[in-house]
């Protein structure tokens, strides 16, 4: 083939570039590529023709044809990218959802913990930080653990202060009780563990009493410290620290009043400073009102003796309070009876989300 | 325990105000329950003289009165009271006065055309009594113009305190005064009680039968008394604290009960036959008591009887027959000591509460038994006249003297409070304790009225309550030097984790009663007689629950009845399989009702609403078991769940021989018995039954093995009899090569056309994880062949064509 036979490269290029630009989709583009750069494509044929050329001819035709091929490849690639983008844009145009449609509620958002469980976890966090562990015992107790060991003499009026639920009288005349307080857990702890002892005992308790502020079943938490030197001053500090941590206030005034419990001597009841001037709301750590929240005292020497501890060697203190009651006070729940009615509206409102685990680091209730 | 401020002042001299008293009472352990000041709202009512009362011109039942109010010209008042008459004295309220009994403020009115500028009042209008039959009729000596409430002594706040069971001495006003004086409020007035000389031997003797719960019994006759209403000062005192005056003799006993914590009894001597004996009642005896009720007696109850009959319930209440009335001329005055336990038991058994019982069961001052008679005698002589006999005393006053060695340093050791030796000794002395020594260990003799004081800890309490608990220093409590370790036991951790695991699955925690009706207990595997309460508070709260399911099912139904039917509830709490501690378990239990699926309740645009099924309950149960660390992969599931589950749609979880729990649909009959509607599924798991995890020396996790080779997944479809459990097919497949096969899953179960009527198709996908080299096709085929063969051998399955 002579040089004169070379087609007009410029017009070939112009035609091909125009065709590439006009290609409507990737298939059309591919057909153009094959027609030009395929095995038998027009440009490929030209490249093959280089082999038959004289060195002179090749010198000029080679760069021209190779340049044409490179420019075509570039144009093809650019067009392919454009077409891909256009095709994607067109597909996306058709893919639409109504993002305002509601999704299913996350189960963890729907589920709730009862306030009693949450408050027990809060108490545990606070007292664990002070080195207390958690002790538990059975709900059905015997007279020894619930009364006798705790220095409630048989027939003493103090026993009557506890409206006790009894199980049937046995042949030997004894009868089991539903524990009237969590103090039997203290007895079990002292009988099974050598001092030093630091425990809290949360749990269910029972008294046959029912009105707006009393239910036949309720929850208590008690604390017990036994060692050789812990005294009322320490108890005072612990209770102050507890109240600040639990009610999440910077400071709180407490008032200790002498009282009587068979199992402590001296015994006290504790009031906490509060402001009840706003209807339906109690604020702690401010105001001039007092609210009774717990009973406490130094463990009675008879109780220590009944648990096998020498009161001249060991001493310690104990306190107890109503979990339901402090939950009501902290979270403003007006009626104790609602705690046990399992009304899902109440539980959804006053209950806690499962992932809101109370920690001291994160704030108990945040 | 109630007392009026004026009554207190008779025992406590000095310059102090009501607030001083109430503040101190709270500080020393006599908690103030209420302060009632009746006078505050009755200040405007004055004593007035009715100058004239004439018929109203326009009304038959009204009178027009001219009333001298002591402030100038008489005032015209229209009055409808039948007893309004010229010359009487009554109580007047001017216009503008609030009338509590009518809950209105008086204005100037015109009644049937006659102007009325004020009102003459009935006791009911002042809310002083129920009496509204007429206006208050005052004696002639009532001072016109004076404040009515001041004049009748109502201007006297009444304080009510809560007395703890150990402080019987504070059930008398004298004892309260002693405590206050020790705490720095006023000075205790101590007047020696002079014996009243007996003029003749007491003609009635007293015998105490051996074994009777009566250490001592003192008796005296006063003959020739003139009984009648007691004087106004005494009536006012009793009324102020809510007691009804009866007659002088009875009022004296009530007065001393509150004044000195010394309950007494008076018999009308004319109605007592022969001598008195203290003895157990005989079966069949009964007594008409002073409260008007007749009590059937038995040998557990101690009585005072005469030759004919029982006359009094010892220490609790006297009898009507021998009671004193206006006609009494000879009176027997009793002052006795009773054993507290017997009194408490008698009162409880008879359901009889009285001021005497309340005191005797807490313990009165034994040393005051005879002085009590003397004081009563003197009062009777003062009010009613008469001649006293000598006192007869049966039994003996017990000597309760005991000495306590009290190291004064103990106060600081137990309480941190620092009080000087002198302060401690002085405090005890002011409370009536005799103290020998002034420092180191002192010897303390408690007074006879403090039977509650047993040992040195009690003395510490006496000191600190009087010197002030605010002096106990708040002392930082050092944390143990022990390492920070988990403070929860395994079971406590499991309880806590299962609660949050269930709540995270959308379930809401309920706390239901530990007691259920007997029928429900029986239905759920309980109802043993030893778990039935002897004294349930209500018949539907009678038996300890054997399962949490009945409570939850009933709660779900209660919510459904309120219009919320898609309910998912759980509880983690005690169940009772027996009465011993080891028979009380912690169960985690949940139920789902209607459309309360784990993925969300009710209908939703993204998917059809489907009812809860046994697999929802199974998934809930497995979530709990996984959360508490049970070896879930090793659980066996059998189809023998208890009878309260649907027989064909329920299962039992086992670990070896131990039953861990059950799940499934509730049995329709169980739901019916609970008056509940389904669909309702649930599970119950006993957390105590999950084996304790092995203690680990370190927290290091086993090394992670990652294979460089791609896993291979192969699918198999087997046709088996419908009765074959999918679990068995899975087990057979997985058992072929436990190392190579890392997962087996069921991705389809089909029953219907194309398969025999009694067969089903179960499709598995099996994951093979090569560890050393890529598997060849031949190796894969070989494993697949073994899987088919093993499944076929174990279950009779055939590979689906």
**In angstroms, what separates the terminal alpha carbons of chain B?**
92 Å
Shape, principal axes of CA atoms of chain B: elongated
Query: How would you spell out the order of helices and strands of chain A?
Result: HHHHHHEEHHEHEEHEEEEHEHH
- Catalogue the unreliable spans of chain B: none
The count of DSSP E runs of length 2 or more, i.e. the number of strands of chain B, is 44
CATH fold assignment of the largest domain in chain A: BirA Bifunctional Protein, domain 2
Beginning-to-end CA distance, first to last residue of chain A: 89 Å
CATH class of the largest domain in chain B: Alpha Beta
Helix content of chain B: 10-25%
Q: What structural category do the secondary elements of chain A indicate?
A: alpha+beta
Strand order across the biggest sheet of chain B? Answer: 30-33-34-40-39-38-37
- Number of separate helices of chain B: 19
> How large, in whole angstroms, is the Cα Rg of chain B?
42 Å
Second-tier CATH architecture of the largest domain in chain B: 2-Layer Sandwich
Number of strands of chain A: 10
* Overall pLDDT level of chain B: 93
Q: Give the biggest sheet of chain B.
A: 7 strands, mixed
Structural class by helix and strand composition of chain B: alpha+beta
Largest interface (C-beta under 8 Å)? A-B, 94 and 99 residues
CATH class category label of the largest domain in chain A: Alpha Beta
The CATH topology of the largest domain in chain B corresponds to BirA Bifunctional Protein, domain 2
Description:
Chain B: Residues 39-149 form the TRNA-binding domain. The complex is a heterodimer of chains A (366) and B (801). The mean pLDDT of chain A is 90. Chain A folds into 2 domains: 8-94; 109-350, BirA Bifunctional Protein, domain 2 (2-Layer Sandwich), CATH 3.30.930. In chain A, strands 1, 4, 5, 6, 7, 8, 9 and 10 form an 8-stranded mixed β-sheet that branches. In chain A, strands 2-3 form a two-stranded antiparallel ribbon. Chain A is rod-shaped. The termini of chain A are far apart. Chain A is 41% helix and 19% strand. Chain A is of the alpha+beta class and 366 residues long. The longest helix of chain A has 40 residues, at 55-94. Chain B has 801 residues and is of the alpha+beta class. Chain B folds into 6 domains: 2-37 and 157-188, 2-Layer Sandwich (Phenylalanyl-tRNA Synthetase, Chain B, domain 1), CATH 3.30.56; 40-151, Nucleic acid-binding proteins (OB fold (Dihydrolipoamide Acetyltransferase, E2P), Beta Barrel); 206-395, Phenylalanyl-tRNA Synthetase, Chain B, domain 3; 404-471, Phenylalanyl-tRNA Synthetase, Chain B, domain 1, CATH 3.30.56.10; 490-689, Bira Bifunctional Protein, Domain 2 (BirA Bifunctional Protein, domain 2, 2-Layer Sandwich); 712-799, Ferrodoxin-fold anticodon-binding domain (Alpha-Beta Plaits). In chain B, 24% of the residues lie in helices and 26% in strands. Chain B is built from 19 helices and 44 strands. A 7-stranded mixed β-sheet of chain B has the order 30-33-34-40-39-38-37, sandwiched between helices. In chain B, helix 5 (232-240) packs across helix 6 (248-260) and helix 13 packs across helix 16 (614-627). The radius of gyration of chain B is 42 Å and the shape is elongated. Chain B starts with a strand and ends with a strand. The relative contact order of chain B is 0.06. Classes of the chains: A alpha+beta (366), B alpha+beta (801). The interface between A and B is large, with 94 and 99 residues.
């Amino acid at each position: 083939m002579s040089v004169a036979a070379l087609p007009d490269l410029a017009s070939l290029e112009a035609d091909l570039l125009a065709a590439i630009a006009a290609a409507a989709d990737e298939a059309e583009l591919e057909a153009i590529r094959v027609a030009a750069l395929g095995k038998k494509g027009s440009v490929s044929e030209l490249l093959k023709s280089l082999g038959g050329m004289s060195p002179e001819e090749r010198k000029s035709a080679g760069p021209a044809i190779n340049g044409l091929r490179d420019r075509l490849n570039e144009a093809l690639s650019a067009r392919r990218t454009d077409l891909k983008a256009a095709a994607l844009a067109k597909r996306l145009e058709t893919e639409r959802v109504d993002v305002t449609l509601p999704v299913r509620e996350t189960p963890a958002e729907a589920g709730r913990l009862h306030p009693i469980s949450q408050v027990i976890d809060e108490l545990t966090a606070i007292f664990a930080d002070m080195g207390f562990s958690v002790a538990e015992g059975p709900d059905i107790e015997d007279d020894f653990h619930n009364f006798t060991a705790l220095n409630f003499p048989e027939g003493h009026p103090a026993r009557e202060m506890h409206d006790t639920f009894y199980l049937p009288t046995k042949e030997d005349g004894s009868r089991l009780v539903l524990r009237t307080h969590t103090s039997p857990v203290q007895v079990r702890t002292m009988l099974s563990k050598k001092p030093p002892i630091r425990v809290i005992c949360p749990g269910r308790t029972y008294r046959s009493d029912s009105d707006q502020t009393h239910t036949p079943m309720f929850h208590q938490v008690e604390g017990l410290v036994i060692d050789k030197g812990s005294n009322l001053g320490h108890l005072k500090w612990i209770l102050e620290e507890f109240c600040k941590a639990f009610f999440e206030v910077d400071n709180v005034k407490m008032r200790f009043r002498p009282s009587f419990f068979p199992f402590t001597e001296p015994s006290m009841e504790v009031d906490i400073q509060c402001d009840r001037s706003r209807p339906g709301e109690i604020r702690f750590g401010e105001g001039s009102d007092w609210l009774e929240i717990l009973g406490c005292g130094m463990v009675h020497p008879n109780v220590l003796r009944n648990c096998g501890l020498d009161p001249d060697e060991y001493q310690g203190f104990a306190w107890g309070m109503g979990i339901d009651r402090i939950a009501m006070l902290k979270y403003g729940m007006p009626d104790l009876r609602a705690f046990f009615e399992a009304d899902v509206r109440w539980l959804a409102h006053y209950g806690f989300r499962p992932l809101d685990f109370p920690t001291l680091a994160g704030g108990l209730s945040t | 325990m109630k007392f009026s401020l004026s009554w207190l002042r008779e025992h406590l001299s000095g310059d102090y105000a009501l607030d001083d008293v109430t503040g101190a009472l709270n500080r020393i352990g006599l908690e103030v329950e209420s302060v009632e000041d009746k006078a505050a709202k009755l200040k405007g009512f004055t004593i007035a003289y009715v100058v004239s009362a004439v018929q109203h011109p326009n009304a038959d039942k009204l009178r027009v009165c001219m009333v001298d109010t002591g402030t100038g010209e008489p005032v015209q008042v229209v009055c409808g009271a039948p007893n309004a008459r010229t010359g009487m004295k009554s109580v007047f309220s001017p216009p503008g006065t609030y009338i509590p009994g009518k809950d209105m403020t008086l204005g100037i009115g015109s009644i049937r055309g006659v102007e009325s500028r004020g009102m003459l009042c009935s006791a009911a209008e002042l809310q002083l009594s129920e009496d509204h039959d007429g206006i208050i009729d005052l004696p002639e000596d009532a001072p016109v113009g004076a404040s009515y409430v001041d004049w009748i002594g109502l201007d006297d706040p009444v304080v009510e305190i809560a007395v703890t069971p150990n402080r019987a001495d504070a059930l008398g006003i004298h004892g309260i005064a002693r405590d206050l004086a020790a705490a720095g409020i006023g000075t205790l007035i101590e007047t020696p009680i002079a014996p009243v000389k007996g003029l003749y031997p007491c003609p009635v003797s007293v015998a105490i039968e051996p074994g009777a719960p009566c250490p001592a019994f003192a008796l005296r006759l006063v003959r020739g008394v003139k009984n009648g209403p007691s004087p106004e000062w005494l009536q006012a005192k009793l009324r102020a604290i809510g007691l009804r005056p009866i007659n002088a003799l009875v009022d004296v006993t009530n007065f001393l009960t509150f004044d000195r914590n010394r309950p007494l009894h008076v018999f009308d001597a004319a109605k007592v036959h022969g001598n008195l004996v203290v003895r157990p009642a005989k079966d069949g005896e009964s007594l008409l008591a002073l409260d008007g009720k007749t009590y059937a007696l038995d040998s557990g109850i101690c009585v005072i009887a005469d030759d004919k009959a029982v006359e009094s319930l010892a220490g609790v209440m006297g009898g009507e027959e021998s009671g004193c009335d206006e006609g009494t001329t000879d009176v027997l005055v009793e002052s006795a000591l009773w054993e507290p336990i017997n009194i408490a038991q008698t009162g409880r058994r008879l359901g009889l509460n009285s001021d005497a019982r309340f005191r005797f069961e807490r313990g009165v001052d034994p040393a005051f038994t005879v002085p009590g008679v003397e004081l009563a005698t003197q009062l009777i002589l003062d009010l009613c006249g008469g001649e006293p006999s000598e006192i007869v005393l049966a039994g003996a006053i017990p000597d309760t003297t005991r000495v306590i060695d009290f190291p004064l340093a103990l106060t600081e050791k137990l309480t941190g409070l620092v009080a000087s030796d002198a302060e401690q000794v002085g405090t005890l002395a002011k409370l009536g304790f005799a103290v020998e020594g002034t420092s180191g260990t002192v010897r303390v003799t408690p007074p006879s009225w403090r039977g509650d004081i047993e040992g040195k800890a009690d003395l510490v309490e006496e000191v600190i309550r009087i010197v002030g608990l605010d002096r106990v220093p708040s002392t930082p409590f050092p944390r143990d030097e022990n390492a920070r370790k988990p403070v929860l036991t395994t079971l406590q951790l499991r309880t806590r984790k299962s609660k949050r695991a269930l709540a995270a699955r959308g379930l809401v925690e309920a706390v239901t009663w530990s007691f259920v009706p007997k029928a429900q207990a029986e239905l759920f595997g309980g109802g043993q007689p030893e778990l039935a309460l002897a004294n349930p508070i209500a018949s539907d709260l009678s038996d300890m629950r054997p399962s949490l399911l009945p409570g939850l099912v009933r709660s779900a139904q209660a919510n459904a009845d309120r219009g919320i039917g898609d309910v998912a509830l759980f509880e983690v709490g005690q169940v009772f399989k027996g009465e011993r501690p080891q028979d009380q378990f912690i169960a985690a239990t949940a139920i789902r009702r209607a459309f309360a699926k784990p993925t969300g309740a009710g209908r939703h645009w993204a998917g059809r609403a489907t009812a809860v099924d046994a697999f929802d309950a199974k998934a809930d149960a497995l979530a709990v078991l996984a959360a508490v660390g049970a070896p879930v992969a090793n659980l066996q599931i059998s189809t023998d769940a208890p009878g309260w589950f649907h027989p064909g749609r329920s299962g039992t979880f086992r670990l070896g021989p131990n039953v861990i729990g059950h799940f499934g649909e509730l049995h329709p009959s169980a739901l019916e018995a609970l008056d509940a509607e389904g669909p309702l599924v649930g599970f119950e798991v006993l957390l105590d039954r999950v084996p304790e995890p092995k203690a680990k020396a370190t927290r290091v996790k086993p090394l992670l093995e990652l294979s460089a080779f791609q896993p291979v997944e192969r699918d198999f479809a087997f046709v088996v009899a419908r009765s074959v459990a999918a679990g068995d097919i899975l087990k057979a497949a997985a058992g072929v090569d436990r190392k190579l096969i890392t997962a087996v899953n069921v991705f389809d179960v089909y029953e219907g056309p194309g398969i025999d009527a009694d067969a089903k198709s179960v499709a598995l996908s099996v994951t093979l994880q090569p560890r050393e080299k890529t598997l060849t096709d031949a190796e894969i085929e070989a494993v697949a062949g073994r899987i088919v063969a093993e499944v076929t051998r174990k279950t009779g399955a055939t590979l689906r064509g």
